[in-house]
Amino acid sequence: xxxxxxxxxxxxxxxxxxxxxxxxxxxxxxxxxxxxxxxxxxxxxxxxxxxxxxxxxxxxxxxxxxxxxxxxxxxxxxxxxxxxxxxxxxxxxxxxxxxxxxxxxxxxxxxxxxxxxxxxxxxxxxxxxxxxxxxxxxxxxxxxxxxxxxxxxxxx
Amino acid sequence: xxxxxxxxxxxxxxxxxxxxxxxxxxxxxxxxxxxxxxxxxxxxxxxxxxxxxxxxxxxxxxxxxxxxxxxxxxxxxxxxx
Lengths: 156, 81
What we know:
The complex is a heterodimer.
Chain A: E1 15-20, E2 24-29, E3 34-35, E4 48-52, E5 60-64, E6 70-74, H1 76-79, H2 89-94, E7 103-110, E8 119-120, E9 126-129, E10 134-137, E11 148-149, H3 151-154
Antiparallel strand pairs in A: 1-2, 3-4, 4-5, 5-6, 6-7, 7-8, 7-9, 8-11, 9-10
Chain B: E1 11-14, E2 18-26, E3 29-35, H1 45-59, H2 64-80
């Protein structure tokens, strides 16, 4: 069971208690929350997320704070090793990026009923500036697929 | 919604700094040139809609059984290594 976040905020020690469908009751350090100022496409009103990481699981989770919605996310480079893209200048400004080292890159995973069709969205990666606690799902051109199946990379 | 008619070679301005020009009209297709500041992102509508739909698919609560399968898969990988 996921019960911790590993993004550390440093000072803030205000713990938020959240009741989540996926993980039951969890406590999150308010200072570790990531702000998606534009929400994400389809969920524009969801602005604050907690990043939940669990070493046992193949995916991490972006758990919405203001609404109980959770998105499984994965490191896209782990499922497609030649994945590459350029972050548009406008997004670099919005996310206040000044060093690549501050970035966490994810892509959103869909876990369908048939696990063999597990897929991830390489067309719209999630960029998180961990230093500024800012995140955005950026939209690339159509070089990479919206639905990239990767079961063979993780399954038996 | 504003609807207006433009001919080939004509253009229109949207706000400050966005200019859209009709470059060509051939067999039901319109070729459009867009001049916009770099921070203005231009995305085909259907791509945005596809991403919205896929995000909705991702957010539907995964069943515990599915998660267990994932965990198992991960363990198998760990054993292999």
